[in-house]
Design brief:
The protein is of the alpha/beta class. It has two domains: 190 residues, FAD/NAD(P)-binding domain (3-Layer(bba) Sandwich); 141 residues, 3-Layer(bba) Sandwich (FAD/NAD(P)-binding domain), CATH 3.50.50.60. Strands 7-6-5-2-1-8-21 form a seven-stranded mixed sheet. Helix 4 packs antiparallel against helix 5, helix 9 crosses helix 10 and helix 10 crosses helix 11. The longest helix has 20 residues. The radius of gyration is 23 Å and the shape is elongated. It binds flavin-adenine dinucleotide (FAD). Flavin-adenine dinucleotide binds next to helix 1, strand 2, strand 5, helix 6 and helix 9.
């Protein structure tokens, strides 16, 4: 196989695996599909809160990437640098550093959790972005319960039993619901822990929960949580966090030993090493997600048009909708819309691209 005919996708998340599955086995002879991702599995983020609340096993949140590809090659590794001029990338793997050439490259490496939004967040709050985070939070919750069972200091017991969820979006609401149900059901195993020693609070700095959805659904979520004794505080901003408390903008202090952070994402650090045009830490792309000002004869050859392509993360910025649906819709649209309709882009172009090399 001529290595220069690699079609490489970086990132085995929603966008990367969806596109890989569309292309797998559909390429002409001489082309090889290579998917590179840090872990050997794809994470289904929307059900991470269920893993926190132990409604499901952590294994159920992930899907092995190897099983998603029949002919394509999967490499477990972290891409550390890309040279667009030479059309090569460098990747750290368990077997050392690997250098690969590509003919087409798709960047689908997603975002990272952002922990610098509130002083103390990085040091004291628990992020929820990976399956490891979910398992860690679940274990911390169990440890808190075990400690309360043994503590005699009433103030400390109250602090240990208070779980604060920062953020009232999808993840925050789901984590709070899962957590309160989980705590309710496991309390019977801790006979010295009373019901009123356990509290879950959600802090949302906006005027309502679930801004992504309609007001009616946001209100319904608030009522549902409140009915389960979750203290939902909308219009409440956390301004600093320590190991023992969250301080609010109005000066109030919530004693808590466990803060779960569901707010904020930041661009993947890899973006900075790409040598691509960057604005506010993100790669600048055209409406069709091709990288701005990158050399490439977009007007003539379809395959050459696909020289660089951003998928989910940049798409999010364009549409202000950081959801999995956007990520997976791109390859789906490629089938739905006829080739040549530029407005459907990435997307339509992903379709064109596939056709052009098959
Ligand atoms: C807790 C939580 C709940 C969510 N709930 C919902 C929901 O209910 N509905 C919804 O629509 N969306 C939800 N989302 C958002 C959704 O998960 C994202 O929009 C989606 O994952 C974005 O897809 P992606 O493919 O761009 O990135 P990701 O799915 O994050 O995938 C990126 C992949 O790239 C890999 N990677 C990163 N850097 C490198 C590198 N240098 N080299 C190699 N590989 C790399 C990562 O390991 C990862 O596998 C949720 C997110 C979270 C965190």
């Amino acid at each position: 196989m001529d290595e220069t005919r690699n079609i490489i996708i970086v990132g085995g998340g929603f966008a990367g695996t969806t596109l890989a599955q569309k292309l797998d086995g559909a390429l002409a002879a001489g082309y090889e599909l290579v998917l590179i991702s840090e872990e050997s599995y794809a994470t289904f983020h929307p059900i991470l809160p269920e893993a926190v609340g132990a409604s499901i096993f952590p294994e159920q949140v992930v899907a092995p990437i190897h099983q998603m590809l029949s002919r394509g090659r999967f490499i477990m590794g972290r891409v550390s640098a890309i040279d667009p001029a030479a059309k090569t990338l460098t990747c750290s793997t368990l077997a050392g550093e690997l250098r690969l050439s590509y003919e087409h490259l798709v960047l689908a490496f997603g975002n990272r959790a952002r922990l610098d939004l509130i002083p103390g967040l990085a040091e004291h709050a628990l992020p929820l972005k990976t399956v490891g985070d979910a398992v860690h939070i679940r274990n911390v919750v169990l440890r808190r319960m075990a400690q309360i069972e043994l503590e005699s200091d009433r103030g400390l017991r109250r602090r240990l039993g208070h779980f604060v969820v920062i953020g009232g979006g999808f993840s925050g609401v789901e984590v709070a619901g899962e957590l309160v149900d989980c705590l309710k059901s496991i309390r019977r195993y801790y006979p010295r822990v009373t019901a009123n020693e356990i509290r879950v609070t959600v802090l949302q700095d906006q005027h309502r929960l679930l801004l992504e959805l309609t007001e009616r659904l946001g209100t319904a979520a608030k009522h549902s949580l409140a009915a389960r004794s979750v203290d939902v505080r909308v219009g409440t901003k956390a301004v600093s966090i320590s190991a023992e408390a969250v301080t609010l903008a109005d000066g109030a202090v919530l004693q808590s030993a466990t803060m779960i952070c569901t707010i904020g994402t930041r661009p993947n650090a890899l973006v900075e090493n790409l040598g691509l045009p960057i604005e506010h830490g993100r790669v600048v792309v055209n409406g069709d997600l091709s990288v701005k000002d990158m050399p490439g004869p977009w007007r003539s050859g379809i395959a050459r048009r696909c020289r660089m392509r951003m998928t989910a993360s940049s798409r999010h910025r364009l549409h202000n909708s950081p959801c999995a649906k956007r990520a997976v819709s791109q390859p789906t649209w490629s089938r739905r819309f006829p080739a040549g309709r530029r407005k459907h882009l990435i997307i339509a172009r992903a379709g064109q691209w596939r056709r052009s090399v098959t």
